[in-house]
Amino acid sequence: MSRPNLFQFATSELSQDAFFCWLASCADASVDDEELRDAGKRFLSALLATRNLNLPNSPSIRVYRQLDRIDVIVEINESIAILIEDKVGTAEHSGQLKRYLAAASARFPNHALVPIYLQTYIQPGYEGVRGAGFSVLTRRELIDLLPLKATDSVLSQFWEHLEILEQDYESYRSGRVWSFHAWERYLEVIAASLDQCGWSYVSNASGGFLAAYWGWTECKFGELYLQVSQEKLSLRIVPSVNITQAEIDALYWKAREFPEWTINNGRRPRKGKSQNLVFLELDHRRFDQEGNILLEDTVSSLRVTTKKLKSFAKSIGIDPLLTPTQ
């Protein structure tokens, strides 16, 4: 069998914190192992570059774990402090990044601060991260920083761990059956290709699902939008507060009769803050003959459906049979 990988078992954020502490420590000028010292210096140099700083020629490294609840702090020559918020698939929350930056500013008032948000998995966007003053380092960027054929076992196993993750995320490019990570990466690509499109994991009583949503269009019944919930493409609505369920049911029938699309379900909407009106496609993806995703064709089809949504919204705006109750 091939060599078991340590990081298939050491999967927690704390385990990854330990690796980055170790890697940063390797940059210290006192480290004899040239391969490890160079890897540590490349890592820290990349982090410093986000603030246009350079690693000193003879770096003296001190590493702190969970100081002021910050995952990792790397102090360099008592003049620079790199803050690393390390994530393994979760995202920032509760204003934690701004609190961490404030705490570090108070503890290291005379240091140049370098706040880094390091995500080795994937998350729906980094606007909040950058808004809090942190620079982002992704899995792909980290793979490129580490040596391809390291002789050190820990270093090579972490690179291998990241590469396995990368291959899993990119596996949506071939085949019709995808892993959870492949769906995440696919929805990230779709969201980047459509106007005002977001994506996330949606929790529900059945266990939840991944979804992308876009095409937000106001109408007299609320706000219509499109949603891809993995394979399925649906038309949904966030009803206005004064709209009755009977009016939503009437809208459901109008959607079924709209001539510009083919409806793939007959179930009426269920009451909720947002409601599924109709499924437009049971699998919205487009594939070639070998079963590989055709991204451009898929995105083009979704854009066409977005135009149909706008057309549908106009059609219900002039329908006297669907006038909301006053």
Instruction: State the separation between the terminal residues, measured CA to CA.
Output: 71 Å
Question: How much beta, percentage-wise?
Answer: 15-25%
Globally, the shape reads elongated
The largest pleated sheet is described as: 5 strands, mixed
**Secondary structure tally, helices:** 9
Uncertain spans: none
Total number of beta strands: 10
**How many domains, as an integer?**
2
- Going across the biggest sheet, name each strand in turn: 1-2-3-4-5
* Radius of gyration over all CA atoms, rounded: 25 Å
Give the helix/strand class.
alpha+beta
Helix content: 25-40%
Protein architecture, described:
With 326 residues, this protein is an alpha+beta fold. It folds into 2 domains: 6-170, no CATH class; 175-322. Helices cover 37% and strands 22% of the residues. It contains 9 helices and 10 strands. A 5-stranded mixed β-sheet has the order 1-2-3-4-5, with helices on both faces. The chain has a 5-stranded antiparallel β-sheet with strand order 6-7-8-9-10, with helices on one face. Strand 8 (222-229) and strand 9 form a beta hairpin. The protein is elongated and about 75 Å long. The model has no long low-confidence stretch (mean pLDDT 91).
